[in-house]
Amino acid sequence: MALAPKTHSKEGGASRDNKIQCRCCPSRFVDKVNELALTDRHKEILNQTPFGHLISLPKVVVQRTLIDDLLGRWKFVERAFQLGSKLVAFLPSDVALIMGLSMRGGNIDHHMNVGISDIHTRLFTTKIVKRDMIEARLIEVSKGECQESIHDTVKLLVLYLFCVFLFPYSNVSLPYKYFRLVDNLEGLCDYAWANAVHEFLVDSISVASKKVQERNSGAPARPVGYLNGCAIVLESWLFEHTTKWLPISKNLFPRIKRWYGGQKQNKYRRKGFYSHHLQELNDRQVIEVLEPGDGEESMLLPLSLVLVSSRPNKRLPNVDLNKRVRTLKRQLEACRKGIQKVERQYKRKITTLEEEISILKAKVAMVSPVAADNGHCPDSLMAEEIPQVGIVLEDELALTLPVAHITTTREPS
Q1: 383, pLDDT greater than 50
Q2: pTM for the full predicted model
Q3: What single DSSP character describes residue 106?
Q4: What is the DSSP string of 153-207?
């Protein structure tokens, strides 16, 4: 009997199922934050950066079976996932809403060449800095109580966030270019971090998905390898774009916190749970575009600027805006059909009322022809009321069209 093919890695050993491996490790970041026992001063400085809210995330492990399934549904040209019969685009705005990171600010070039970094020069002796080296420095520096030690701790923690969570890369090392970014903590707020996380992840998805889909097609087995970038975003993305799962709470910020923690997390992580439900997705359970809630609009760019690319030298993908326009057109058409249906119902009601009025007029004329001639019967009153009713109904219908619901709503599973 032939054995299942093995894939080997320097980090994880052998994997018998040939599923995608994910370098994103949010649980390791959470463990390190808890181990450091940060002071109020540390937290105060962290909250002045774009990443302060991420230190309070629940402990969660990336489900690579779910990620593997999603990669098998990736469409390279459209930069979208196939959910049911619909193509749902993976957008920078999704990352912004899920991770609580802004789309506003300067773009980060992941291939940039930068000068000398102050924190790298002072705290590290090698150009290549790996995860365990940052961890060791974090523990050491966090014990200091002077102002410089506190700021260095925050800088190292942001670098560690990049290394294991937002931009995890090969060989568990952090590229040198990111060190220069944290030299100026205040300047971190000047960048569009949602765009940076999205671009980094999409680049890796485009590579890894080809290997997964090749394996799914029955091609000769070869290791599918690793997915770089913030893979945990894809899990929350799936939950947000379907109505198959209910959040722990709809009021948690950022949205990633809505899906992890407690008994619900354990329920959603049973083996085979996701694959089974993904196979049964229908179009009514798919939410094509995430709408911002109260307080979330400030993280997003206006719709007219959705196509501002973080890659000035590359072809601009126009799937974002086109997808949004098509969605709104479908929703508007549904609203119009609903209004037409209500209008037909009102017309039938008016016809019925007119028939009843005619019958009453005939009865009144038979019972009291003199009163009818003197204008005391309901005939004169109702004759004046009927046109007014029609006008009121037309006005109400005209007023309802502009405010028809065009936002995506969840339907019960």
Answers
A1: no
A2: 0.70
A3: B
A4: HHHHHHHHHIIIIIS--GGGEE-THHHHHHTSSGGGGGB-HHHHHHHHHHHHHHH
